[in-house]
Amino acid sequence: MKDTVVLQSALTCPSCGHRKEETMPTDQCVFFYTCENCHVTLRPEPGDCCVFCSYGTVKCPPVQAGKSCC
């Protein structure tokens, strides 16, 4: 199990490539995220629990800690 959980992750939109640094919540999953550039709504890819696991530079806090996500 990892001791330090990183809360910052850069989400990259698969449609337009726009990238934005976001702070991940520790108490909920983020199932939907709207790209501020092209306004596409991102959803987790099959097998992932949240948009950070699919499109972020860092997986969500529960996954980092070795637990199942939300």
Summarize the structure.
By secondary structure, the chain is of the alpha+beta class.
What does this 3D model show about the protein?
With 70 residues, this protein is an alpha+beta fold. Helix content is 13%, strand content 20%. The protein has helices at residues 51-55, 61-64, and strands at 8-12, 19-23, 33-34, 41-42. The chain starts with 7 loop residues before the first strand and ends in a 6-residue tail after the last helix. The relative contact order is 0.27.
| CA(first)-CA(last) distance | 17 Å
- Main sheet summary: 2 strands, antiparallel
Instruction: Give Rg in angstroms.
Output: 12 Å
Count of individual helical segments: 2
Structure summary, number of beta strands:
4
List keywords for this structure.
70 residues; alpha+beta; two-stranded antiparallel sheet; 13% helix; 20% strand
